[in-house]
Amino acid sequence: MFLSISNASSKLERIQQPTKSDGSLSFLVVGDWGRKGAYNQSQVALQMGRIGDKMDIEFVISTGDNFYDNGLTGVNDPAFEESFSKIYTAKSLQKQWYNVLGNHDYRGDVEAQLDPILRKIDEKWLCKRSFIVDAETAEIFFVDTTPFVDKYFTHPEDHKYDWSGVIPRDKYIANMLKDLESALTDSTAKWKIVVGHHTMFSAGPHGDTVELKEQLLPILQASDVDFYVNGHDHCLEHFSSNESQIQFLTSGGGSKAWKGEIEKNKPGMEFYYDGQGFMSVQLTPDSAQITFFDVFGNALHDLDVFNSKQLYSVT
Ligand SMILES: [Zn+2]
Q1: Where are the domains of the chain?
Q2: Which residues are listed for Fe cation 2 binding in this entry (predicted)?
Q3: CA 14–ligand 1 middle distance (angstroms)
Q4: Would the pTM count as exceeding 0.85?
Q5: Residue 315 has what pLDDT?
């Protein structure tokens, strides 16, 4: 009973994702969406389908808060199909979806979202806690950010969080950060992208996530990460910082938005849109083009980054 299991050699699971034949890659990012089509979720899905077709995307990333308000109740929860399979019906979106968990997902049965049995209902679904998608041109590191946030543990209010698989929390976080740090250090990919649910910098109602700025950001800064991509605030936003080349991109406009709480003139803010929408990413080994789209499919903001780690232009 005093057996201690060492996770010293544990590594993040790695999934191979092919690129186009010329080594380029395109994908969409959406977050904070599962509302059975309501709050314009269906309209965002429609435009994702249109843009996804135009870009001939390889996959879709979900930044979490996949099912409102309280995740899934189990693998048989009809919300899985009502909020996912029956909404993202466009042909271009029938690609692999890489999903992380958000804080709302932790209020339900977490194991259900992680259960491979969901792939029998809809094979495009794939959700894990922390993992790596190796797409040659880019490596994408998915991080389970909800366990970092103190208030879910200290002030859960009337919410019940499913921490099975997370506690003891300190060990869970320490192991994850250690695995992430070594994977980022070892990576030779042209582009390093980190995806989590929670914000790093945000002018939205949730603001910055101090726990991530303290514990995760230094690792990203030390390993030449290009982009940190998240949801959580129901908006589209782009921040840069003087401390590193990392561009911070929020795509959390998958359904309910227009909260109207914006911290104006926040340092580093390049773009903020309070409404629904999503983000597209087009990568070649030398360049990245990122575009934010609104619910009508209009391009709102472009970011072009050249792979010299220093040069970028915002238009
Ligand atoms: Zn959230």
Answers
A1: 13-314
A2: 65, 103, 197, 232
A3: 25
A4: yes
A5: 56
Query: At 304, phi and psi to the nearest 5?
Result: -110, 125
**13-314: CATH homologous superfamily?**
Metallo-dependent phosphatases (3.60.21.10)
pLDDT tens-digit map of 145-166: 999 999 999 999 999 999 999 9
Whether 293 and 43 have beta carbons less than 8 Å apart is answered as no
Spatial CA neighbour of 256 closest among 33, 23, 3, 9: 33
Residue 64 CA to ligand 1 center (angstroms) comes to 7
76 labeled part of a ligand binding site: no
In this structure, what DSSP letter does residue 91 have? G
| Active site members | 206
Cα-to-centroid distance, 302 and ligand 1 (Å): 25
- Asked if residue 162 belongs to a known ligand binding site, the reply is no
| C-alpha count within 13 angstroms, C-beta hemisphere, residue 169 | 12
Find all residues with CB under 8 Å of 170, minimum gap 6, and list them. none
Contact 100, 32 (CB under 8 A): no
